[in-house]
């Protein structure tokens, strides 16, 4: 039998268990404080960050149609700034340092106020330095009151964790590659796009998981002491999954349950039923579960891409017996691919329209020096933004010319997946799309939110190594 043990807490933080949510009172600004807290990682105290309300709630929930009225207070001993991942705020409230607003100094605060036009599962995270490494992230749920009425909502935040400081990890990545990493896999190689990773007749394995993490977390906990979530016997559950990991993708394993995938990145899709679903870094999945009757526990596991390591939570009906679950799956999971992506269809697709502007964006990189880029340009503050004109339909033709997967995230807009490897279709509406090695993905969006916007790989160290670009409205 699995017994709970008390998690460590510091004087200023609440118990570091599941990120609890608190409904926002939009008549007054909701105060969110970026602060230090302590969690337990496999029996060892870990000092991390959190984005919390004064009552200890992590992140917040609100309703579609309300205003997003939030004051972010910086309680860290360094600057910070929070990005509202998946929302479409005014550009100056998007939360990217030096692009969409000044940083928040130590002890300072910034107020945000904009309308929420659509609902779904979103999240917030620091876009300053390497603060994501320290779990500077929290859920952001925008409910639609009439939707999924009677469902119990379960939010799970996935994360990777290392006791090694991120600056040391980054230095190790760059120095290791310079001293003898693998040959660069960039646009200079001859590719057969129709055969994925067939490189000049030789099949190449993708390069996964740059960082060897100490633990993988679901709601701040490992499977040594997972969160046990009480559910009704035979109840209905809306599982809101957020992959807030810095560098890791997962396969969702529902065990004996079959779930109905109803939304990705907060946007409805035509339902897809299954027991396993991929989730790349930065992405979200909404899965409806119909629980069978009986005093049963239902482990929900998340297996690291390409490996056996796993984390998870347990749904437990009244009287259920809880058994210990190993932190490694029986078999290694495969690399994420676009099989599910190619099957997804948007419930509310973009209106049919010819693109006014198409950007060809090759994801490039040099494995030997751990430099990542877009169109062989390593981003810096002097890199000119790509121009947009309000009212345009824009397509981004993204081709991954490297042997590493790249989850690409666009700020301030929702886009629709409209093509994979030459096949056009009316795919999911998202804000983060996975570009696996040697694959081409085309996404379309309407230029309807003027400003200066980031577009980047959501793998933390790839972004810092230069796989970053910006768009600016003319």
Kindly describe this structure.
It is a single chain. This protein has about 475 residues and is mainly β. The chain folds into three domains: about 30-145, Immunoglobulin-like; about 215-335, Cupredoxins -  blue copper proteins (Immunoglobulin-like); about 355-474, Cupredoxins -  blue copper proteins (Immunoglobulin-like), CATH 2.60.40.420. About 5% of the residues lie in helices and about 40% in strands. The chain contains three helices and 33 strands. The strands form seven sheets. Strands 22, 23, 25, 27, 28, 29 and 31 form a seven-stranded mixed sheet that branches. Strands 12-9-14-19-16-17 form a six-stranded mixed sheet, with no helix packed on it. It has a five-stranded mixed sheet with strand order 13-21-20-15-18, with no helix packed on it. A hairpin with a 2-residue loop joins strand 16 (about 260-265) and strand 17 (about 265-275). The longest helix has 15 residues, at about 165-180. It starts with about 30 loop residues before the first strand and ends with a strand.
What's the overall geometry? globular
Sheet with most strands: 7 strands, mixed
Roughly how many Å is the radius of gyration? 21 Å
Structural class: mainly beta
Give me the number of helical elements.
3
Helical coverage, percent range: under 10%
Tell me the distance between the termini: 62 Å
- The overall number of domains is 3
CATH architecture heading of the largest domain: Sandwich
Q: What would the average pLDDT be, to the nearest integer?
A: 90
Which homologous superfamily in CATH is the superfamily of the largest domain? Cupredoxins -  blue copper proteins
Which fold name is given in CATH as the topology of the largest domain?
Answer: Immunoglobulin-like
The count of β-strands is 33
Strand content: 35-45%
